[in-house]
Amino acid sequence: MAELGASPAFPRRIDNRPTSGVPDAVAAARIELRQLRYFISLAEELHFGRAAAREHIVQSALSQQVQRLERTLGVVLVHRTTRHIELTAAGSRFLLEARQIIEHVDRAAGLAQGLTSAPPALRVGLLDEGYEAARPVLRTLRARYPELEVHQVQVGVPEQCRMLADGRLDVGIGRSCAAPPQIASELFRLDPLGVLVPDGHRLARLPVVPVSALAGETLLMPDESRAPELAEFVAEICRTAGFVPAAFCGSALNLRAAVDLVVGGCCVMCAPASTADLAAPARWRPLAPVVPRYPWSVLWRAEQPARAVLALVAIARELSRREGWRDPRESRVNLAS
Q1: What residues does the HTH lysR-type domain cover (predicted)?
Q2: What is the DSSP pairing of strand 218-219 with strand 293-301?
Q3: What is the CATH number of the domain that holds 100?
Q4: Residue 92 within any structural domain of the chain
């Protein structure tokens, strides 16, 4: 359960309506799609503030709509205390149905608006095609909308934000901490961070590598111009462990070139787990004592997003939930963990 700002406790029942699990026709007709979306966000975030930010509304408005939904149904969906929030049994059951309804509505809207028959091109910015974090999302998008033209653009996160702002990019994939206010974002994956080392390296023999063990290694840092968020993430992990990394004197054009430097014995490199399968013959080992997690978010221009953009965001959210890519109660990665 997650922390929650002060909110009055609710009774277990709202009125004397029978709780058969199926609302009457009048009640069902009063349910609004936005109420379902708000409830889903609240159920996944387990925090009113984060759910409201995700839906781009104020917290009080989201709370009011969820309360109206509960009154319409005649059951309590969310148990609130002054410190915590959790779904009731009825809320857990209703969540499954609400997700299906929203997915069907989004799918129908896409069909009606021509997403599958005459779709626009979708320009997606990726830090590096070697990072696998977003690959399942794009693969599912292409399978679900086979006529949608998806163009991948290899570009750093700062440039992604600039391109999103001026309309040269539709979607970005990266860490959202530096995104300007006009760029919306949603966390979809917390990627365990580890270290890539050459086969036969002393650290390759360890099942997990203490962060402190990197103090004696030459570390290839992410390119500051292309991935300042990832570079700062790695640097902060090292600082938390009590040392400043001995940075490799040089840089790599892309992930493949970086792996070649590691394999050649020039350095070691911190990298998310999503690169492990692509980094052979280098060896990936998780960091210890608790593995830090790098946050990947979908970025898009908040004002009037295209249907294809919303489809990608929905797929990222769907896969994140199904594959367990993130803890829905956490909005930020603890660098000290």
Answers
A1: 31-88
A2: unpaired
A3: 1.10.10.10
A4: yes
Cβ contact 195:273 at 8 Å: no
Q: In the numeric block, which tokens belong to residue 166?
A: 């001026």
Q: What is the dihedral of CA 162, 119, 174, 193, to 10 degrees?
A: -160
Counting other chains too, the contacts that 59-67 makes at CB distance below 8 Å and 24 or more residues apart are: 59/5, 62/38, 63/7, 65/32, 65/34, 65/35, 65/38, 66/35, 66/38, 66/39, 66/42
Query: Any idea what the CATH number is for the domain that residue 249 is in?
Result: 3.40.190.10
Q: Which domain holds residue 299?
A: 122-189+295-323
Successive 10-residue mean pLDDT values, the chain, 337 residues: 38 45 62 93 89 90 94 93 87 90 80 58 88 92 90 89 92 83 91 92 94 93 82 91 89 85 93 82 88 91 89 93 72 31
60, burial (CB in 10 Å: exposed 0-12, middle 13-18, buried 19+):
exposed
Residue 329 domain flag? no
**178, 157 contact by CB (below 8 A):** yes
What total of structural domains would you count in the chain? 3
